[in-house]
């Protein structure tokens, strides 16, 4: 049993010393309810939730995150649902996976990673973990923002020409 970045602790279902470890991962730049949904969904698939936060240099399929690596890791680690947040490895994605030793890896509903390709790569590395996919969170009211990209687009549309201290 480990103590996570937010100090929370979980016992295994029967109080045994080997809790089922669930692993989530992502960029998590500017938190929103879609992130919370994903992390709660992932947490429900195990007894203990670990999260790998992607390094800026490894975010290549979309715009680079605005917030620094450590800030994104610290925000995720402060959430009640998360036992421990880890900054990803700069080069070898399997280093933190091996250290964490997950029983189940939970991919996000829209993550570009291919489930069977990851399962094959894990098997080749000798890591015995199930690979599953989380569900999506739909907006619950008009205007709810469920994507970092959407928040940034709105911010640029509405505040793009103003400083944060107010109208010029
Ligand atoms: C099993 C697994 C392990 C990963 N480990 C790392 C890692 O160690 N370092 C890292 O920078 N990214 C890692 N990633 C990648 C990111 O978490 C993420 O998938 C991607 O770079 C960011 O895009 P997204 O937030 O749109 O998914 C890993 C992804 C998976 C599926
Ligand atoms: N609306 C949502 N419902 C469920 N999961 C979500 C939702 N939005 C994001 N996630 C999940 O959160 C994880 C981290 O996502 P990421 O940081 O890429 O957020 P994002 O807001 O979708 O980013 P961007 O808008 O830049 O693509 C991913 O696994 C993603 O599937």
Automatic annotation (TrEMBL):
One GO-annotated biological process of the protein: FMN metabolic process
Enzyme Commission no: 2.7.7.2
UniProt keywords, alphabetically: ATP-binding, FAD, Flavoprotein, FMN, Nucleotide-binding, Nucleotidyltransferase, Transferase
Annotated InterPro entries: Archaeal_FAD_synthase, Cyt_trans-like, FAD_synth_RibL, Rossmann-like_a/b/a_fold
Coiled coil: none
Residue ranges of the TM segments: none
Record's function text: Catalyzes the transfer of the AMP portion of ATP to flavin mononucleotide (FMN) to produce flavin adenine dinucleotide (FAD) coenzyme.
Matches recorded under PANTHER family: FAD SYNTHASE (PTHR43793:SF1)
Subunit structure: Homodimer.
Official protein name in the record: FAD synthase
Provenance organism: Halobaculum gomorrense
The organism's taxonomic lineage, starting at the top: Archaea, Methanobacteriati, Methanobacteriota, Stenosarchaea group, Halobacteria
Gene designation: ribL
């Amino acid at each position: 049993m480990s103590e996570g970045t937010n100090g929370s602790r979980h016992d295994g279902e029967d109080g045994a010393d080997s809790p089922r470890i669930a692993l989530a991962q992502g960029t998590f730049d500017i938190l929103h309810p879609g992130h919370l949904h994903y992390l709660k969904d992932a947490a429900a698939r195990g007894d203990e939730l670990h999260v790998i936060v992607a390094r800026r240099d490894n975010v290549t399929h979309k715009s680079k995150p605005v917030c620094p690596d450590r800030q994104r890791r610290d925000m995720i680690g402060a959430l009640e649902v998360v036992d421990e947040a880890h900054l990803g490895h700069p080069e070898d994605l399997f280093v933190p996976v091996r250290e964490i030793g997950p029983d189940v890896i939970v991919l996000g509903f829209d993550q570009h990673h291919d489930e069977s390709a990851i399962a094959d790569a894990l098997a080749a590395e000798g890591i015995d973990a199930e690979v599953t996919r989380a569900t999506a969170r739909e907006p619950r009211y008009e205007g709810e923002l469920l994507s970092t990209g959407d928040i940034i687009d709105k911010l640029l549309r509405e505040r793009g020409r103003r400083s944060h201290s107010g109208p010029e």
